[in-house]
Amino acid sequence: MNVQQSKTAIIEFIKVNKIYPPDVIALRDVSLAIKPGEIVFLTGMSGAGKTTLLKLICAMEQPTKGLIEVAGHDLGRISLKNMQLVRQKIGMAYQDFKLLPKLTVYQNIAMPMEITFTPPKTIRDRINYLLDTLNLHGKADIKPDKLSRGEQQRVAIARAAANYPPILLADEPTGNLDRENSDLVIKLFAQLNRAGTTLIIATHDPVLYKSYPAQTLELSQGQFVFKDQATPKTATGE
Amino acid sequence: MNLHLSSIIVQTARNLKHTWGTQLMTLITVSLSVLMFSFFFLIFLNLKQAGGQISKNIRLIIYLNNDIPAAAQPQYIQKIKSFNKVDKIIFKTRNDALRQLRQQLGKDGDVLDDLTAGFLPPSIEVYPARDLVSLAKIKRFSDFLATLPGAQKVQYGHKWIERLSYFTQLIRLIVLLSGGLLVLTATFMVSSTIRLTVVSRNDELEILHILGASKSYLQMPLIIEGLLQGVIGSGIGLLCLYFLFNYIRSRFTGPGLMSIIHFSFLPPPTTAAILIISILLCTTGSIISIRKFLRF
User: Does this complex have an ipTM over 0.85?
Assistant: First the structure.
């Protein structure tokens, strides 16, 4: 991670401000550059701006001021078609999961792959793999409201990871998980990262960000307060 | 391409499954509208055809004071034809009339032996053109013929002709009204159903949008829904009409008026046109709703 502008960055923020009406400042002059394949932890207290930053990356929110580039596209000037392509490159695991209650676990996870017209067999194989990896065997045909919060969270992560996205954003991915299931999630993230996925993980969990040799950015009141190199305790979570 | 199609079909099937109650109601409404419109249209077409058949036998008889000399007949013909298209004009003298009456009486024709030809008036028989438009104008035609020089009176089966004409006009009006109803129900019902689908699937559509679904990926299943409503709804409506038509034909054929009228079903081009128009209306309803309510 490099706070300086970088031509090779996959995600770049230049003096980004986000103010929610009437005058709630979520982000203030935030600049960052993340290279492809990096892992970045975003930490900070609730309301520090972590979720807002993730939402800006996937263009769910528009900045009040500043420039955001993702995968080489200026999100402020991007065409609708390119916006769709950029979004297809991003997997997002939301804090509130955003699972569709009418669809089964299988159908929820299949969504990003269906959008990109992935062959049904590939979808089936990928979903079976993800369900196994995240300890969700036998849950494919269940509706999300029949699952525990921890299981719902893992389904949301499976959906974010389904399409091998070049960028994966995870908002509190282990917030509802016990240690054992957190490790499964981390193992999956590490696997994706080895395949080239850039990971940006917003978390409160010190065990998570202190266990990996990744960049940690702390946000406070919408600004980065410090950055440091995490201790390389377990390099890939494996 | 196949993957695109199968993925969109999966989406459509999912929509239909989640909103099947509303879809069914719309399907019934579209079917009934198509049935109603095509039923009245079928009656109208058959009446029009019947009018043509009946008009073959229609003639207006102008009874005259005196025989018309052969030299004057072309003037009469020209005058009659100037008002209306006619198929045939026959001039009958008093002798012709007597001969005809004798023929009609057959064996009892001898009752006429003591009578002279003078007791029957000469006449002109006018056979108007065989279409319903002329039939409807017959009253005015008759009034005109009554003004010809030497005309005493004009006779034709005016009462039932007027009734048939009135009834045909009424059916024409009903066809127009039911056509309007078909347009309204097909467009607005489908539009409302798609709106409900959009509202009920709003969360899903929003997530699909965030995940990078293209505009066509979001819209196509909804357009296909409208299209299916048109295909299935009009198909059921026309099928019901076909069964109804066969039932009526088997029950009501026999002597009398029904034996004169040859009932026939809608011609294939008309059936295809009703089907295509219904599909277009339902698809239009779907597109209207998408443009209005789909925010992505």
Answer: no
For helices B73-83 and B138-145, the axis angle rounded to 10 degrees is 150
Identify all chain A residues contacting B18, using CB atoms and an 8 Å cutoff. 102
User: Tens of pLDDT along B4-49?
Assistant: 777 788 888 888 888 888 889 889 989 999 998 999 899 888 877 7
Only one residue has tokens 């709106």, namely B195
Q: Which residue has the tokens 């269906």?
A: A114
Q: Which residues of B touch A120 (CB under 8 A)?
A: 6
Query: At B71, is the secondary structure helix, strand, or coil?
Result: coil
Query: Do the Cβ atoms of A102 and B18 come closer than 8 Å?
Result: yes
* Contact residues of B toward A, CB < 8 A: 3-4, 6-7, 10-11, 14, 18, 203-204, 207-208, 210-215, 217
The count of other CB atoms within 10 Å of the CB of residue B80 is 20
In 3-state terms, what secondary structure has residue B257? helix
CATH 3.40.50.12640 is right for the domain spanning B59-156: no
Structure tokens at A83: 């916006």
On chain B, the residues whose CB falls within 8 A of the CB of A115 are: 208, 211-214, 217
CB within 8 Å: B207 and A98:
yes
Here the tokens at position A158 are: 């499976």
Q: What are phi and psi of A93, to 5 degrees?
A: -100, 110
Q: N- to C-terminal Cα distance for chain A?
A: 22
Does A78 reach chain B within 8 Å, measured CB to CB?
A: no
Q: A37-59+75-229 maps to which CATH number?
A: 3.40.50.300
What distances in angstroms separate CA B210 from CA A71, A178, B201, one per listed residue? 16, 29, 14
| A58-99 pLDDT tens trace | 999 999 999 999 999 999 999 989 999 999 999 999 999 999
DSSP string, B170-227: HHHHHHHHHHHHHHHIIIIIHHHHHHHHHHHTHHHHHHHHHHT--HHHHHHHHHHHHH
Long-range contacts of A54-61, Cβ-Cβ distance < 8 Å, separation of 24 or more: A54/A92, A54/A169, A54/A171, A54/A200, A54/A202, A56/A13, A56/A16, A56/A18, A56/A27, A57/A11, A57/A90, A57/A167, A57/A169, A57/A200, A58/A87, A58/A90, A58/A92, A58/A169, A58/B210, A59/A83, A59/A86, A59/A87, A60/B210, A61/A18
* Chain A environment of B212 (Cβ under 8 Å): 83-90, 112, 115-116
How many Cβ atoms sit within 10 Å of the Cβ of residue A140?
Answer: 18
B86-92 sheet: strands from edge to edge: B86-92, B123-128, B60-64, B151-155
Which residue among B6, B212, B217 sits closest to A85, beta carbon to beta carbon?
B212
Burial B145-169 (b: 16+ CB within 10 A, else e): beebeebeebebeeeebeebbeebe
Which residues of chain B form CATH 3.30.70.3040?
59-156
Q: Residue B189: which of B35, B21, B27 has the closest Cα?
A: B27
